[in-house]
Amino acid sequence: MVLLQGNFACEMKVKANSPFSGAGEGAIIDGEMAEPDVQIITSGGLRIPAHSSVLASASPVLGSIIEGPQKHRSSEGNIPILGVPCDAVSVFMQFLYSSKCSEEQMENYGIHLLALSHVYLVPLLKRRCTRGLAERLTIENVVDILQLARLCDAPDLYLRCMKLLSNNFKAIEQTEGWKFLQSHDPLLELQILQFMDEAESRKKRTRRQRQEQGLYLELSEAMDCLEHICTEGCMSVGPYDMDPSKNTSPCSKFSTCHGLQLLIKHFAACKKRVNGGCLRCKRMWQLLRLHSSICDSPDECKVPLCRQFKLKVQQDRRGEDARWRLLVRKVVSAKTIYSLTLPKWKREEEPRTTQNHHEIRSFK
Ligand SMILES: [Zn+2]
Ligand SMILES: [Zn+2]
Ligand SMILES: [Zn+2]
């Protein structure tokens, strides 16, 4: 029943994984395997007998070749699939019958199968190939696969290639594939360089956002410390009605808390003050104002000036300006965002930017 002609090596392999081994539904009529009624012809001259009903149901393109005018096939029902190794065509046929292909076949014929799945519109195989090739991307093959992904309209694979390229450009620049691309496809070269440029500015943007987020988080921590110092006291600083000697050991947020304590001590003793142009006093003033904007129980609050700031906002008909309100919102949300992203943050190479542990940074 299986008629094979041509290249002997191909013939043996095709027999070993004959497409009929996992026969598709279309080939079985009344519980029996129907006779093959078409033959696939490969570049190597191999003939693979097949069932037109199976081919048509697996691939609309093969379907229209079978049903359409006999332009693409000879009168004997031959359908040529040329331009790829005959073994790749065998694997393709096997997939059309069984929807299966092995990892080894993917390893050997992944690029051909992607091309075939694209040309003959077999989405399931195309997805398999996209995934399979993405797993097998290397510095050496990435340029070739990128070009194939573009030709075959496989955006996921294309993006994976672009990312690998932009992360390993120094090494890839040295490969034969890249040199060939440079001399044959300047447009794609340009697209790659543009992608890398955009990736770089994306990275910069993320870095900036993370730094900003770090600042808000620092402020949020400073707010916790301020309340804690003014309520419970910490080390040598505390509310006037509390004996400061009771809290001599550093707390868990030592660096922020200690910086804040130094600032409070300075604020209490400074002769220049805010209006005299003292920057440290101005910073403390802003922190106190920020606390007041966040504080929801000013009547019991022990933080200095909390109520006064609240009253001032109420009296001032314009209220707080938009920029200040935005700052307050961001400080309030910083902690939530931080706790959500903590595992990722820990992995990143850039820890939160605490530039100076002994001072609270200025923020406006
Ligand atoms: Zn403390
Ligand atoms: Zn001062
Ligand atoms: Zn308060």
TrEMBL record:
Gene Ontology MF terms: calmodulin binding; zinc ion binding
InterPro entries: BT1/2/3/4/5 (IPR044513), BTB/POZ_dom (IPR000210), SKP1/BTB/POZ_sf (IPR011333), TAZ_dom_sf (IPR035898), Znf_TAZ (IPR000197)
Biological process annotations from GO: regulation of DNA-templated transcription; response to hormone; response to hydrogen peroxide; response to salicylic acid
Coiled-coil regions listed: none
Pathway participation: Protein modification; protein ubiquitination
Domain (BTB): residue spans on this chain: 36-105
UniProtKB keywords: Metal-binding, Ubl conjugation pathway, Zinc, Zinc-finger
Listed name of the protein: BTB/POZ and TAZ domain-containing protein 1
Native organism: Abeliophyllum distichum
